[in-house]
Amino acid sequence: MQQREEKQLEASVDSLISLVALTKTALQNFIYKLENEYERLTWPNVLDNFGLLSGQLNTINKMLKNEKTPSFRSQVIIPLLLSQKPDDDLTVLTEQRVPVFSHEIVPDYLRTKPDPEVEEQEKQLSTEAARIGPDVAQKQIQALNKMCSNLLEKLNNPRDDRDAESAASRLNKPSFNPGDTNALVAAVAFGKGLSKCRPPGPMAPGHPGQGPMMSGGPTLQQVTIGGGGGQQAGKMPSSIKTNIKSASGSMHPYNR
What we know:
256 residues; mainly alpha; elongated
């Protein structure tokens, strides 16, 4: 009977090791893709990798919960030999993660309970949870469920909410300012609000509204009016050329 249980335990351990090895290989491949092939990695591929890992973990859980699988919790692992020297077989078996099976490593790798700090935090959380009454706990659960439901609704219908918000903003917010539009129309049509500015400089005598005239130089009227009345139509008056020459003489202020 004892030999049969030992064989069954060895077979279960071998099956568990093979399943864990497959899960580890799938996880390594997924991490490699995330680190080196992230540019070509698409979201469906990520979901496929997550689905593969989830299926393998479910297979391990089903195996552990199977009736034919012996209870691993009742098995005790006792270190028979501890050494400070490197062990080549242990290094190969653990893929170079544990080269030495010493007193420092054994408590971490053969621990069946959490760390004392973690265990103390669990006790504190359990004590705080026990202080809360059933009514208060039920109210908190309902509030949390309501928040989760609202969050799921927003996540499931983001496009509809965005379309509704954009439509409401377009209806409520005008795209122009009526005051600025009326001021612009009044300025263009009636000159309202425009300042009356004139160019600086002295005004020419006898010609209000005209700009400054150059001293000593002939005006446009002097050039065009000069000339005899007997000139034929269609010909330029001869006095224009004479007047221009006289204007370009030494009296021109810009003559150098």
